[in-house]
Amino acid sequence: MPITLSRITVAAYRVPISSPVATSFGVMHNRPAVFVRLEDGDGAFGWGEVFANWPAAGAEHRARLLVEDMGDLLLGQPFDDASELFTQLTEKTHIRALQCGEWGPFRQVIAGLDTAMTDLVARRAGLSVAQYLNPQAEHTVPCYASGIAIGQADHQITQGQEAGFSTYKVKVGFDLTQDTALLTGLFSTLGAGETLCADANQAWALPEAERFVAACTDLPLGWLEEPLPADASLTHWRALADQSPIPLAGGENITGTGGFADAIATGVFGVLQPDIAKWGGFSGCWPVAQAIRAAGQRYCPHYLGGGIGLIASAHLLAAAGGDGLLEVDVNPNPLRDAFDTWQGATHRGTLTLSDAPGLGITHLPDEIAEFVTYSRDLHI
């Protein structure tokens, strides 16, 4: 039956943090999130999350973009399923995004809306999202510890080990000599069967990336993530891949089915990492995940944000299967932690999905209400 949306509720959140989260391109001084709830005329509902980490004022901007630039395209409009919402919104906002050059924000808002719509549809079907996508979906997904600052990695890896992780990803791209020296030392802290990966966050041009790879040739890194800008030429990516014994990873800043088809076809990536909150939602990322798996490549969804997007990423990985890992940021974030995704368990190396319909989220945690910076409730 067609789904006609009768209510849209969106809120932006921002939590102060005592320890900033630093990447090679900038520093996060607080933790933001944008959560959206869709409801149809029968009272069925679904939750989604919109990417809001960058720029600094991104959360409020994206929440307002949803309300003021897309509300008229949603309320009272019939959709057969989530993919139709995704396709229609992409087409109908094309000129609006072109007019202002804000392709990213529009794609991110549509991704969050698609996640909410998929949650709603799966909930109506009485299935978890993972089971809705794939009846043979896994019930658990393995996780790795992410967002680890290279200068604090000794401490954070020890904490990660206590939490049950066995794979860790540290942020590099600050000082090549210091980064490589610190990485070398970190291997002595790892136990048997543990893996260390590195994330440069697009820090280098090809010559610097080549120097890093040469300096780390003898280090058994699990992967090297975004050593080059996502829009670097294929020639540069190929040149680096040809000389790197370390698998290259990327995908969080690739958008569009065509963009991922090209990335898969090149064969330069050992690991591909679509981000469900940045582009595609389930309608875009589920076919991409299937294509990655069909090509024999490793699918590890990228994610760094609030609790809804993390849970959605887990359902996507559970449906895709394979040897992928769920990214779990180890830095404090009340907008993620309040969802109690592990249901009180201290072991974080594996996440067990809820069998509840949809994403298993019925309402937002009460304790995050104090962090709202913008909210709107649209209805007909």
From TrEMBL:
One of its GO terms (molecular function) is lyase activity. Pfam families: MR_MLE_C, MR_MLE_N. Keywords: Lyase. Gene3D superfamilies: Enolase-like C-terminal domain, Enolase-like, N-terminal domain. Residues 150-247 form the Mandelate racemase/muconate lactonizing enzyme C-terminal domain. This is Mandelate racemase/muconate lactonizing enzyme family protein. It comes from Marivita cryptomonadis.
